[in-house]
Amino acid sequence: MCNLRFLKLYDWTRRFGDPTNISKVHLPFGLNSLPNGLRYLNWHGYPSKVLPSNLSLENLVELELFDSNVEQLWEGKKNVPRSEIEEIPSSVEGLTNLISLDVSDCSRLKHISINICKVKSLRYLYLKNCSKLEYFPEILETMERLETLDISGTAIKELPLSIEHLNGPLKLFLRGCKNLETLPSSISNLASLIELDLSDCSKLDKLPVNMGNLKSLENLSAGRGVESQLPSSTTSLRSLIECLAFRPSSEFITSERRNTWRNTRLTKLDFMFTNSPKLIEKAFSNVFAESLQIIKQMRTKYQKEVRVSICYPGSKIPEWFRHQSHTSSVNIQLSTHNCSNRKFLGLALCAVIAFKGYRYTEEFSVGVPYVCCFQTNCGDRVTYKGELTFHADRNYKESIFINSDHVILGYHEYSHGKLSMDDLASFKVMFKAPKDSSPRIPLRGFSKIEDLFRGLDTSQSCRLKYCGVCPIYAEPEIIRTSISDEKFDSTNQDLVPDPNTIPENKLTL
């Protein structure tokens, strides 16, 4: 049947429940294969859980599987280069066992049937980059099992009020919806909403006033000005990623932002300002220093591991990073006089990355792995690793190139017991900037780690220039938030601030 173009297996007994009209078709295990030229497939009551693995979608125009047992349309990924899908039809309700529906990148998709809410088994619905999709249908019945709804990159202007019927644990992605202007007030009724991505929604400038009802919200990605509207009652918030493309001032961390962060359970703050050479480095240094202050207070209050990360164009390490190097490592000898009875919380980390013609796309991500090796007064060694991350913060339709230095600031909490600085004699931090992602590094001591780093391949378009480390303690410590113009000292000596030169805008950590 290599020339078969039309196949229809219609079962009236399933359609109308007529026991006198018994289907003569008995294929309890479905088919092993279907012709490549097939254009129309209509099979009511398809008995298998998945379609044949060799099913070709090159010529398929219509697929109808009413009242079937399908849980997954096919295994793996299928390319649909000639896809003419313009709608998800009303017959979708017949896929009573369907778990995942992915029609991402269907550029002609314009309509989704209101019957989508009748697929009670559906857990994942992906509509990403369906650029002609302007409306999402009303949800007239509850969908308790839907876990992920991705409408990123579509042309939708609003969500229906009935969005509240998605009442199960839900992750909602609206990233890059350029036409989205408002969110319905009913979104606050999503008591089980876990994650909400509103980044790069350029027309969305306000949130519903009752967003504080989202008691389960843990991760929020928001654009400029949106995050600051969160009420303090959003106490479950764990991760806040604000993707910004504007020039920050000294008032970037306003009292409203500060109160919001302190009244949540944030464990992560990410700010990415990429490829914007006009931004002021000092402003970012101030943002990072005050973020550490807020993070430390939340750490004390909630006893949770916390992280903060900022990336911005620049080539200088903030001066308050006392240990700086133009090599890939920093050695720190701890003084008993300076560290006595001080509780060590973690490390502020800084890396300056030089980019030259580096391709920047939606999937762009550069990891700067680091390894921290602590040596105690008793001669024991404690080693752990982490990564500073530089990643794309927008849905770029076309790739661009980065040709300027960028500074990555991060904080890594020390989680190996409750050590005081009296227990530590020295530690060493080693950085490396791989091509696109960090390797898995076995941890077997100083010499082995150094050997591994020497063997890594560093891209000519992305390399590490400078690095810096600043230990963070539980006791208040004055941090000078200016950018150093001094030359790097290859001996890695402490850069202790002169008390007479500390500016008035000093921060306490």
UniProtKB/TrEMBL annotation:
This is Uncharacterized protein. It holds the Pfam family C-JID. InterPro entries: C-JID, Leu-rich_rpt_3, LRR_dom_sf, LRR_R13L4/SHOC2-like. Gene3D superfamilies: Ribonuclease Inhibitor (3.80.10.10). Transmembrane segments: none annotated. Residues 101-201 form the Disease resistance R13L4/SHOC-2-like LRR domain. The lineage of its organism: Eukaryota, Viridiplantae, Streptophyta, Embryophyta, Tracheophyta. Residues 490-509 are annotated as: Disordered. Residues 313-474 form the C-JID domain. Signal peptide: none annotated.
